């Protein structure tokens, strides 16, 4: 039995993780759930899973639920600090980080420091502070188990392999809803068009990131930290069918791929139950009805978010943190109708130009650069 904390239980990954827990009550127990503002859904989750602790990090949402309900077996706690502490309880074995954005960094580090294994969905944590997070995990002997489907694929392809035998990580990308479009076609795309992802159904922020290919850029940086390769060893391969979740090329020329249907519950489950492989309800691949699997290079000129991610990744220091922060603010502004789709790249570039990179930053410097970059992004949006 693994006792888990689900941080971000009300989101796309969080609710699918609870689907997995519901299907395997004999193996997974939900000890802690934490969300930000969705008090109605958290309330239903408390009633169903009866965790020992439930957290709402938004003070207003906490006050709403607290005044509405009392729970007999669950302690309800509110506020940002409660979220940071949520993954550190003695009773927890593994923490799923399924909250979105930079807000996931401090709770993840606190859980690592408390010696908990991490099922990591919150890629922004590794992008902003990959060196610190991986070093602390190593020092504490903590496993970082990837939930992101591509990194889960690498993890499976590399099972039992010597990392030194890696020639290349072949990171697959669906290409998003605008694959094949040129810049002029992207100028006036609407929020609804952006949110209509062809193969995956995800939270709003990551769905925008998939359309800009910034998500793939964040995943390149995530892969670099998880597997310790050089950036030149990570090659993005556009694969519109999203059946091959990623591949590893080895020094001898062999390529190992992981295939499955497009259902996040599979990589979530594997991260939570590793090293055990257990039954699942995920739809099986039917090779007789499968259409062609195709592969093509990404268009780095049109989707320059990916190119920028390689640049900030190679630059290192606080550059990836600034890239991520500017993107978070820009995506939010796009979703709120304040800027156009291609302005997302403009905001990121403006903020990257403005901020001097700090090499080998401490955690406090990463947190303050994140705040400064967000303020710069707001300013860049205001003067666009
Ligand atoms: P969602 O937007 O669906 O959910 C986000 C979750 O985070 C919600 O539970 C939300 O709480 C919580 N949250 C939002 N803001 C804050 C905050 N400031 N502090 C604490 N918690 C907060 O996101 P996804 O599930 O799509 O993505 C979650 C993470 O997983 C991201 O890092 C994403 O990149 C990664 N990921 C997602 C994939 C997917 O298929 N969705 C695939 C691979 C990776 P509330 O709703 O209560 O406000
Ligand atoms: Mg992914």
Describe the structure.
The chain is α/β, with parallel strands linked by helices and 384 residues long. The protein has 3 domains: 2-146, Rossmann fold, CATH 3.40.50; 149-263 and 289-301, no CATH class; 316-384, Rna Polymerase Sigma Factor, Chain: A, CATH 1.10.1740. The chain is 46% helix and 15% strand. It is built from 16 helices and 11 strands. Strands 4-3-2-1-5-6-7 form a 7-stranded parallel beta sheet, sandwiched between helices. A 4-stranded mixed beta sheet has the order 9-8-10-11, covered by helices on one side. Strand 1, helix 1 (12-23) and strand 2 (28-35) form a beta-alpha-beta unit. Helix 6 (123-140) packs antiparallel against helix 14, helix 10 (204-212) crosses helix 14 (319-335) and helix 14 packs parallel to helix 16 (363-382). The termini are far apart. The model has no long low-confidence stretch (mean pLDDT 97). It binds NADPH dihydro-nicotinamide-adenine-dinucleotide phosphate and magnesium ion. NADPH dihydro-nicotinamide-adenine-dinucleotide phosphate binds next to helix 1, helix 6 and helix 10.
Task: Give keywords.
single chain; 384 residues; alpha/beta; Rossmann fold; Rna Polymerase Sigma Factor, Chain: A; 3 domains; seven-stranded parallel beta sheet; 16 helices; binds NADPH dihydro-nicotinamide-adenine-dinucleotide phosphate; binds magnesium ion
Brief account:
With 384 residues, this protein is an alpha/beta fold. The protein is built from 16 helices and 11 strands. Magnesium ion binds next to helix 7.
